[in-house]
Amino acid sequence: MAVTTRGRGYNSLMSQPRETKELTPRARHLLRTLVQCYISDGRPVGSRTLLKASGLSVSSATVRNVMAELEDMGYVCSPHTSAGRQPTDKGYRFFVDTLLTARPWDNRELDRLALRLDGGERTDDLLGSASSLLSGLTHYAGVVTVPRQDLRALRHIDFLPLSGNRVLAIVVLNESEVENRVIETDRAYQESELRAISNYLNAQFGGCDVYRVRQALVEAMQHDRQRMDQLMQLAFEMGEKVFSEAEGEEDYVVAGETNLMALSELSDVDKLRELFRAFNEKQDILHLLDRCLSAEGVQIFIGQEAGYRVFDGCSLVTARYAVEGRPVGVLGVIGPTRMAYQRVIPIVDMTAQLLGAALNQSR
């Protein structure tokens, strides 16, 4: 499996840099050290601990003064007066945008990951493998959106009569993806009628991508009904039922949601209930991931940046994957804001590249 790009930058983010007061080199160094310490052990960082971890030759009083300035600027906060400080969403954002350095990939490590995504697998299996890979490597929740329907080609369609006014549509997409759909019709159809309808649709649309098929059917039904003979009208009505139902199926595969239950930051029962409701209802997550499909590079949403209250306290790291050079879906990781970004970002980036390569290979 060939992956052509390695060592890409990881600072192509959805959010634009904030206009803030310029931090001194010392403040930047202490902020970076504080974020790293907090990510490592999850406890507010005191000035003495911070001074020791930073390696700076300054006094504890100097560190406390810098921390007070950073708190006034909104980069850090203190859970209570006697505790040390921890990063805010703004502090994490500054860390990711300006202080993070990407870890280069070792070729042997890349080869091991590639073995987990076999280009000979079906698309559904590849998506499941990718989400499990993300979850297993990060210990968070891994999500992968299903490739957009408009980039799948119709190879063949057959119809079989069922009981009552129901018809089974057997749709073959790309080379070997088979989907079965049961549709309700206005009347019962004979097998010979359905064979004639499928023959007509295969002759007209075989090899076309699903989006164009759906668009052509809708336009024809709206504008050319008077010029259609009976077979054409029946075929277009049947095809419109099949492919209009397919339009609402764009979805995602998720793995490792239960990993979030073990994280102290997300241990609140009400918070977990909201998160799992979001996973089940899917609308908010799909909308957020869809925003990433048009953006290059790795995208990072920290806390309230996601725009949905359910993701407060969470971070989403995403990247889009491509088939034949066209972005078709998005994958990513959902975890706490106290996330090991330096490790998670390249994992997401490389998994997106490997999934795209595997999908290209399986076509």
TrEMBL record:
Keywords: Repressor, Stress response, Transcription, Transcription regulation. Residues 22-94 form the Winged helix-turn-helix transcription repressor HrcA DNA-binding domain. HAMAP family: HrcA (MF_00081). It comes from the Bacteria. The lineage of its organism: Bacteria, Pseudomonadati, Pseudomonadota, Gammaproteobacteria, Chromatiales. One of its GO terms (molecular function) is DNA binding. Belongs to the HrcA family. GO terms for biological process: negative regulation of DNA-templated transcription. InterPro entries: GAF-like_dom_sf, HrcA, HrcA_C, WH-like_DNA-bd_sf, WH_DNA-bd_sf, WHTH_HrcA_DNA-bd, WHTH_transcript_rep_HrcA_IDD. Signal peptide: none annotated. Residues 1-23 are annotated as: Disordered. Residues 124-345 form the Heat-inducible transcription repressor HrcA C-terminal domain. The keyword Repressor applies. Negative regulator of class I heat shock genes (grpE-dnaK-dnaJ and groELS operons). Prevents heat-shock induction of these operons. It comes from Alkalispirillum mobile. This is Heat-inducible transcription repressor HrcA. Pfam families: HrcA, WHD_HrcA.
